[in-house]
UniProtKB/TrEMBL annotation:
InterPro entries: AraC_E-bd, Cass2, Homeodomain-like_sf, HTH_AraC, HTH_AraC-typ_CS, MarA-like, Reg_factor_effector_dom_sf, Tscrpt_reg_AraC-type_HTH. Keywords: DNA-binding, Transcription, Transcription regulation. This is AraC family transcriptional regulator. Residues 8-106 form the HTH araC/xylS-type domain. One of its GO terms (molecular function) is DNA-binding transcription factor activity. PROSITE patterns: HTH_ARAC_FAMILY_1, HTH_ARAC_FAMILY_2. The keyword Nucleus does not apply.
């Protein structure tokens, strides 16, 4: 669990430098993780992107300072990383629902986002199955959507995308072109802050003939950690994702290789069944 302790150290560093220059590269270095792996682990464990967490903490501190001091709004804005009063006011209103000036008035409701803390526990009472496999690059065909990861928007959008695909015949049409991996959900193209991503529903390319509105996506050659998922969707899948980042990565010598992540739906059975089988594939490198 050493990596989780280092994550705690990175939270402490963020807290000490909320009024300074916080670069994700430096925060990740404190955690002894690559920038991508640190951001991915942080988001999976906390539900916040690193940038989202820093913004929330800074705006919490800013509200406290406006209420408890006579500091000018522009001075507070600059202190917490906003170059103009307008950008600060917009961000402040998005969080607190009122302007910075209004926050000075008595009896105004404000939101506080507490500093994160982790209770590090040694788990392992339930074994976690996985296998390591190398696979050459391959193409998938299908459709994708762009989605934000902020405030869990990606989870809502991906669920809606699957429901739409299952109801409009797309999943059925795609299944007719499936390779050995069946239907595949691909998490890819994370932006540098990991606050936006592409989610692609596809299948291994088996033909050169497919509808013109479908797209191709290349999955690079990688070493994959493959985790079986047993149970109804999406609950069973979510639990395995959580365990990968809270238990498996911290207890192994592997790190995320920054490539696309795969949800592999091999089974033709009922996704709502307790016996449904699927897999999570994550590209890895040895630290």
């Amino acid at each position: 669990m050493e990596s989780l302790q280092r994550l705690v150290d990175s939270i402490d560093f963020i807290e000490r430098h909320l009024d300074g220059d916080l670069q994700i590269e430096k925060i990740a270095k404190i955690s002894c993780m690559s920038k991508f792996h640190f951001q991915r682990m942080f988001h999976m464990l906390t539900g916040f992107t690193v940038g989202e967490y820093i913004r929330n903490r800074r705006l919490t501190r800013a509200a406290e300072e406006l209420v408890q001091s006579n500091s000018k709004v522009i001075d507070v804005a600059l202190k917490y990383g906003y170059e103009t009063p307008e950008s600060f006011t917009k961000a402040f209103r998005n969080i607190h629902g009122i302007t910075p000036s209004a926050a000075r008035k008595k009896s105004q409701l404000l939101k506080a986002f507490p500093k994160l803390s982790f209770q590090i526990q040694i788990k392992g009472d339930v074994e976690m199955e996985y296998k390591i496999m190398e696979k050459e690059a391959f193409q998938v065909i299908g459709k994708g959507i762009q989605t934000s990861t902020v405030n869990g928007e990606n989870n809502r959008n991906i669920t809606a995308f699957w429901n739409e695909s299952n109801n409009n015949g797309f999943s059925e049409a795609l299944a007719k072109n499936c390779g050995p991996l069946g239907l595949i959900g691909v998490c890819a193209d994370f932006n540098p802050q990991q606050e936006n991503m592409t989610y692609f529903i596809g299948a291994e390319k088996q033909t050169e003939t497919y509808p013109t509105e479908w797209q191709e996506l290349e999955i690079p050659k990688a070493t994959w950690a493959i985790f079986p998922v047993k149970g109804s969707m999406p609950v069973a899948m979510v639990k395995v994702w959580e365990r990968i980042f809270s238990e498996w990565f911290p207890s192994t010598g592997y790190e995320h290789a920054e490539g696309p992540e795969l949800e592999v739906y091999l089974s033709d059975g009922d996704p709502n069944s307790v016996d449904y089988y699927s897999e999570v594939w994550i590209p890895i490198i040895k630290k």
